[in-house]
Amino acid sequence: MIKGDPTKNDDGLPIxxxxxxxxxxxxxxxxxxxxxxxxxASGNFNSSADSTARxxxxxxxxxxxxxxxxxxxxxxxxxxxxxxxxxLMNEDVTSLDWNCDGTLLAAGSYDGFARIWSxxxxxxxxxxxxxxxxxxxxxxKGGNYILTASADRTTIxxxxxxxxxxxxxxxxxxxxxxxxxxxxxxxxxxxTDTSIQVCRLGCDQPVKTFKGHLGEVNHVKWDPSGQLLASxxxxxxxxxxxxxxxxxxxxxxxxxxxxxxxxxxxxxxxxPNPNQNLLLASxxFDTTVRLWEPERGTCLHTLTRHQExxxxxxxxxxGQLLASxxxxxRVLIWNTQTGHLVRSYExxxxxxxxxxxxxxxxxxxxxxxxxxxxxxLRK
Length: 379
What we know:
The chain is mostly beta strands. Helices cover about 0% and strands about 50% of the residues. The chain has one domain: 7 Propeller (Methylamine Dehydrogenase, Chain H).
């Protein structure tokens, strides 16, 4: 690296073009790319004024100036109707997810409601049945159901077309922290009660219960085939489960602190690289990200350049790159095959979430300083 080289950062890596989006009045806890076009959704956290989600238009034909926010942004205000009057809710936005064709955005909130918005900012449905904050939310692949997990200990499947409750599941003893669909009618949920429940629409009992973690389970994720389920826990372990057996397939114990976030790589039929080995990534409060090969049961790489807890990780659509976001205010981009750091960005707030756009050209990141950053990785 040439001293003072304007094309390189402090890591000696190519500088990435960055757009900073400003508009939120407090911490931005969550962000999610539209799967069909360059619309980026973000949600407020710990708001002192109002709780909002926003949709930012990052399409190439939208004017911007000097790295400033594009002119077009939609503010989705969270409110309820009381006595025929709209009342704004001063509650955190905890979760965001787009449906499969990118026409609708679902947002979960600490007020116990989920809301479905169109891309033009119109509220389509208000989903209100939980008795506590919504902590996680996911569309199924078919786009006809939405799944929510709540601090009220329950999970709910909603009909996305009508906004009506289809079924409520009451199998956790404490708050439900995360959910993930196995297919269009079956899902897994995790909880602070240390258990994992696999449930199916129409069944009044879990089809499977996985027990083995000794601490609260923060995340559950099905692999692309729906055959394996990964779970990360405060007990510092990453476990892999199969519906074919009651005990775990793998029990990975390399992390030294809580395993906070996990992701599977795109792989198999239908993925951009069908012959690429399936990888599982885990991010921990021990400041490391680990890449695992579940087929072999081994750790492929340990990524150690972060200096504070890891809060979010995400694979690029082709599985060749992994983005990680940390409390050290940095977004790092890694080569998944070599484990090498290929890009880095440092902001001015803790990074809560990182996510790739569908084209694999941009990474969105949201931070504690109220900003949303978009990193353009094209040369």
